[in-house]
Write a structure and sequence with these properties.
With about 650 residues, the protein is of the alpha+beta class. It folds into 2 domains: about 260 residues, Galactose-binding domain-like (Jelly Rolls, Sandwich), CATH 2.60.120; about 230 residues, Rossmann fold (3-Layer(aba) Sandwich), CATH 3.40.50. It contains 16 helices and 27 strands. It has a 10-stranded mixed β-sheet, with helices on both faces. The longest helix has 16 residues. Keywords: Hydrolase, Signal.
């Protein structure tokens, strides 16, 4: 049986590690246990590969004002496009871009130098003129006095080279393009970066080098750590999203509606793209499936693609937009947290999946303007130096499930959050520690649960909503093959805001196991409304406590190394403790409702274990313990309901 520190000793160890974390030390321990009084109120950040957790810094901006709509009139009648301009990078690779400039009523381009918004895209700038993908040229900006430059990143569109998204080599191209932009007669030397999804991530990465021309960033649904966000969530590969995304980009890299323009250059670019398939697409896809060490485990390759690792280099005002069910749900608030202490940063999280968040579906709402209006206010403030008060907008604006409206706060995580531990015992979820001898719950280990669930719609970026099935929005169907644990009907409203940690004790008749933990609002009519979920492969359960998030002396967001060295045997019949990171949410569980936690073995097609791990876990029976000796539990961030704005 695995030897593990007794749960009640762990908070003391955690408090000591917080002191050590400031000195850069790192230890692998398992989280859990009860509260440490000496650390009451202490909150840390979540660490990264390069930095341990630290005391959560105060945001640089006050965010004291409320929302205001910033609607400016068009100052130009039209736009003009200069397409397929070729720049040669320092390694000889041809990078293709287009420039869109404002024009007067006669179609003549503005002659005075203007600030420029730059978007680096893998989606083929010539295609995005017909189908808006990931931050295409935005005429709203151009007609209000901005140039907009869209750049095919290397290996995509009309640019040469092989595609390796967000790679260190791709990032070397960004400042070279910016240098070219600011030398043009139509540029006044001031640049902002903007984008959606992949182009939001490039917007952040382009700013991390501190290029003096870049004055502001507006990323909509960026990732922060693509490895932990979607590549291998909890050690399980995103088989629904990644292959589809990579196939779309690869197709767009070869099918080009502007093939007739400079056909020789187009043919050379396509040849480079096809030859480059062996550099990223094929080996990385197979590497995830086969658990190849250089792909399936975390390493410097994935670190290079993570804005969270270089956030200290982003020193300009940044406004981040995310969604509570976005594919990058985990990282959007983490990006804000990584920036807030050293630059002006704002965070808006809506009730959105990926495609909805890209456009801010439903805005304006509750005083929150449309995304174009917010972005224009941001760029006018920091690119044109117009004193419009953008820096005083609320620091954090989140949709709150159950409250069914946007609410603002001064920071994320919520400054009034307190850690509360609830124990899983005999189908119930309660603050009382479990009794001795409680029987474990039993779950069959099968890999395909969750086919129709909120998680499935989340990883499908919301597309499957066109088939209106109730199971896209509730956990009931998925929970038929999971063990469920419910609170008693709440006697008062419960407000949860932030990340959640589940500490699950299991044994299995197989060699390995996967866990999914779902968090639901169980309504009086029996509907289990989805709020969030987390995944974890049991053999990758090791935690680096010095990089984990702590609140009130309790670990509330574990940092798993996901390296080959961190693999720990599970073994048949052994009792092991598996800390599971449940992605952050914000929800008001109403009086009379119940909070439900369910634990199962899979969350398909959101993710699936690599084949070697999957084979080790198939046909097993997993037991979930909840007794005095092995107390499975969850730590939730509870905020006083009084912190919420009253519903009008």
């Amino acid at each position: 049986m695995e030897k593990t520190p007794k749960p009640k000793l762990l908070p003391l160890l955690g408090a000591a590690l917080l002191v050590l974390a400031g000195c850069g030390s790192s230890s692998k321990v398992e989280g859990g246990g009860s509260e440490t009084p000496m650390a009451r109120g202490l909150a840390t950040t979540l660490g990264t590969r390069s930095e341990p957790a630290r005391r959560s810094p105060a945001p640089r901006s006050s965010g004291a004002a409320g929302w205001v709509d910033y609607e400016t009139p068009e100052t130009y009648a039209g736009t003009v496009k200069h397409d397929n301009i070729v720049l040669t990078m320092d390694d000889g690779t041809a990078i293709s871009l287009q420039v869109v400039r404002p024009t007067g009523a006669d179609g003549t381009a503005e002659s005075s130098p203007l600030p420029t918004i730059v978007t680096f895209t893998p989606y083929n700038k010539n295609v995005t003129a017909y189908v808006s993908l990931g931050g295409a040229i935005n005429p709203y900006f151009v007609k209000r006095g901005y140039n907009h430059v869209q750049v095919d990143v290397r290996g995509t569109g009309r640019s040469g080279g092989g595609w390796d998204p967000f790679s260190a080599r791709e990032q070397q191209d960004y400042p070279q393009v910016i240098d070219w932009v600011i030398r043009q007669p139509w540029s006044n030397g001031v640049v902002g970066t903007w984008g959606i999804s992949a182009t939001a991530t490039t917007a952040l990465l382009a700013a991390k080098g501190g290029h003096p021309a870049i004055k502001a960033v507006f990323p909509i649904v960026p990732h922060g750590d693509i490895y932990r966000d979607v590549v291998l969530v909890g050690g399980q590969g995103s088989i629904a999203f990644l292959p589809a995304w990579m196939a779309v980009v690869t197709a767009l890299a070869t099918v080009n509606p502007a093939f007739h323009d400079q056909p020789a250059q187009y043919a050379a670019a396509v040849a480079d793209h096809l030859l480059g398939l062996n550099g990223f697409l094929v080996p990385r896809t197979l590497g995830v499936l086969a658990a190849e060490p250089d792909t399936a485990y975390d390493n410097g390759y994935w670190a290079d693609k993570a804005p969270l690792e270089v956030a200290r280099g982003v020193k300009v005002p940044t406004f981040i937009v995310g969604g509570l069910f976005d594919i990058f749900q985990r990282s959007e608030p983490l990006n804000y947290e990584a920036l807030k202490g050293h630059t002006t940063a704002k965070l808006l999280i809506g009730p959105w999946h990926h495609l909805e968040a890209a456009t801010g579906t439903g805005l304006p709402m509750d005083g929150v303007p449309s995304l174009d209006h917010i972005a224009m206010m941001w760029f006018d403030r920091y690119l044109k130096d117009i004193p419009n008060g953008a820096e005083h907008l609320p620091n954090v604006t989140q949709w709150v499930w159950g409250h069914e409206r946007f609410d603002t706060s001064s920071d994320w995580p919520h400054p009034q959050a307190r850690a509360q531990r609830l124990y899983l015992q005999g189908g119930s979820l309660a603050e009382e520690t479990p009794a001795a001898g409680a029987a474990p719950a039993t779950v069959i280990q099968q890999p395909f649960n969750g086919v129709c669930s909120e998680s499935a719609m989340q990883i499908a970026i919301g597309i499957v909503a066109y088939a209106p099935l109730p199971c896209w929005y509730s956990d009931n169907l998925a929970q038929t093959l999971e063990a469920t644990f419910d609170t008693a009907p709440l006697e008062q409203d419960l407000y949860i805001n932030g990340p959640i940690q589940a500490d699950i004790w299991i044994s299995t008749t197989a060699l390995d196991a996967g866990l999914v933990v779902r968090v639901s609002d169980l309504e009086p009519n029996g509907n289990a409304r989805s709020l969030s979920s987390g995944l974890q492969t049991a053999s990758l359960r090791a935690v680096d406590a010095s990089r984990s998030r702590w609140l009130d002396g309790q670990m509330i967001q574990p940092w798993h190394p996901f390296t080959a060295d961190s693999v720990e045997t599970v073994g048949i019949g052994n009792l092991v403790h598996v800390p599971v990171e449940v992605f952050p949410t914000s929800a008001l569980i109403r009086k009379g409702h119940r909070l439900r936690i369910s634990v199962g073995a899979s969350n398909f097609p959101f993710a699936m274990m690599p084949i070697p791990n999957l084979l080790q876990s198939l046909a097993g029976v997993m037991r979930i313990y909840g007794d005095a000796q092995y107390p499975s539990s969850v730590v939730i961030p509870v905020v006083p309901v009084s912190a919420l704005q009253a519903t009008p």
